[in-house]
Amino acid sequence: MSAVVACRGVGRTLGRRGRWVEALRGVDLDIGAGESVAVVGASGSGKSTLLGVLAALDRPQEGRLIVGGVDVWAAPERARRAVRRRFGWIPQDALTSFDPRYRAGDVVAEALPRGTADPRGAVAGLLEHVGLPAHLADRRPATLSGGERQRVAVARALAVQPDVLLADEPTAGLDAPAQERVLDAIASAGRDRALVLVTHDLRVARRMAGRVVVLDAGRVVDDVRADGLESGGPVLARLLAATPSL
Ligand SMILES: Nc1ncnc2c1ncn2[C@@H]1O[C@H](COP(=O)(O)OP(=O)(O)OP(=O)(O)O)[C@@H](O)[C@H]1O
């Protein structure tokens, strides 16, 4: 499988004034076209930092990011902007990432490619795709339920027509039924494209991904098939033991 995104020896240090954290260390990772990968690990292990690096938003101090054959940080800014358009981002909490003055439909429409012939129709189609009625387009995000808002975020990420969907704990804080609906929407959105999903929940990882990457203190310590979690090392074994219903 050819990689749509690849990291080579990526190191990312964060912080300031002598308080540095090596958030990522020597990360090598290949995401194949259409592949779904869950990134798991303890709090602070570097999961969100990795997503920011993969999306070409956060520049690593060490190593390379290669997207569709482009060595992203060696390329000119214009090429980097084109690379960023290949990613659709599903945030942890859509409310804080949406402009409160916009209605849900505008949030999605804003992400459509320039020159889209029938934006209203396109927005209605995208909302339908994530299981939401078209009339929700007229509501402000703050008046939607958390689960509805997250599905608007999935529709917005899809509007970009990305090669890769990136999702950072997209069901955090939702109750079980809402979680199910958001995961269904992401699964359906991810059908024809790669998906990288950050989660602390191995049940979500197994349900959503074919492959599970485990981070520990910024390093990839396991990279296993989702149906073979038992073959992982001690960090994954601890996560498994903490997920009794799996
Ligand atoms: N802006 C920052 N300045 C300093 N340190 C940071 C910054 N952002 C993250 N870190 C540190 O980098 C490490 C990795 O953080 P990151 O948010 O990537 O972890 P995570 O696995 O996503 O955690 P969580 O599951 O709690 O969201 C942590 O030790 C964190 O405290």
Automatic annotation (TrEMBL):
InterPro entries with a match to the protein in the record: AAA+_ATPase, ABC_transporter-like_ATP-bd, ABC_transporter-like_CS, ABC_transpr_LolD-like, P-loop_NTPase
GO molecular function, one term: ATP binding
Signal peptide residues on this chain, from the entry's feature table: none
Keywords (A to Z) from UniProt: ATP-binding, Nucleotide-binding
Chloroplast as UniProt keyword: no
Superkingdom assignment: Bacteria
Stretches assigned to the ABC transporter domain: 5-242
PANTHER family referenced in this protein's UniProt entry, alphabetically: ABC TRANSPORTER RELATED (PTHR24220:SF685), IMPORT ATP-BINDING PROTEIN (PTHR24220)
Protein name as catalogued: Dipeptide/oligopeptide/nickel ABC transporter ATP-binding protein
Organism listed in the record: Nocardiopsis sediminis
